Input
Amino acid sequence: QVQPVESGGGLVQAGGSLRLSCAASGRTFSTYAMGWFRQAPGKAREFVAAITWSGGIIYYADSVKGRFSISRDNGKTTVYLQMNSLKPEDTAVYYCALARARNVGGIGDLRAYDYWGQGTQVTVSS
Output
């Protein structure tokens, strides 16, 4: 079993920064990709960013390009999300997820992910 655990959420003013971390424990040796998704109240869960584990290929949602940066630590099966220039519309619960294998929908598709963390709240005040 694999368990991703997020940390680093909190309350920040618009324009500020936060760094989220996600450490995956358990049988992580066959990780294909790790990603971040978010879900605001009353909205569907949406893709934020993802990174493949072997090639380090990175994808971002258009809404966060230029503001958010994803990175990884292969040795620790840990992924980070640096969030800068935060906006009130970035307020959501942020979830980390781990994919074991490539999926036809791509790593921006939440159905590609096998394991999910519990989520961490990010609140951006105006």
